[in-house]
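Input.
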Amino acid sequence: MERLITFETKVLLEAELANNIAQILQEEIAEKGQAFLLLSGGSTPKNVYLKLGEIDLDWSKVHVGLVDERFVSQDSPYSNETLIRQSLMSSKAADAHFHPMVIDPSNYEVNLALATKENELFQTPDVILFGMGDDGHTASIFPNDVASNEAINSSLILANTNAPNEPTKRITFCGPILKKGKHNFLMITGAKKLEVLLESSEIKYPIDSFIHCIEGIYYTQNA
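Output.
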């Protein structure tokens, strides 16, 4: 597969990806005075965020958001926001401006409106880091979910979708915004996920809708 960048170890992948993202952010800050970064959750990219957060750049000029989020409070172990705050923003990136997706955890629909307003500045993200599940989902756009199917082409900024596993309530950026990222990367680990990715076009997994706009697929078999 073109654009597949293979690494012998996850450590090498993490260092290369973190440095690449940092360089792009520095270039965007130099060019327009600020940079916009959207990150995926889950355990796979955590060390990328730790490494990225240790790199010297003017983090006060970086806006950080989430590709997607679970509709949970920050004290939940499933919170992507907490992951980002405890990894990326635990050191030099503490001054970055974080834009949450869960603002009112008591009301799913009201929260969507609040989160949309909070995240409307991500019209053309400078960097997006995608992830992918074993079912071929990316962001919180899942197979066999009506709301996810609508979100792929929706003109809205954010959408509520339904995951097949707990926590089932999710919030995601819609497809058109994700496709407008200036530098889109996908990180996957393990032979199983590579197999899913390679068959995504034939089976029409959600990730297939985004492959054409991803400039680099960072992969290591050693998960």
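The two ends are 19 Å apart (CA to CA).
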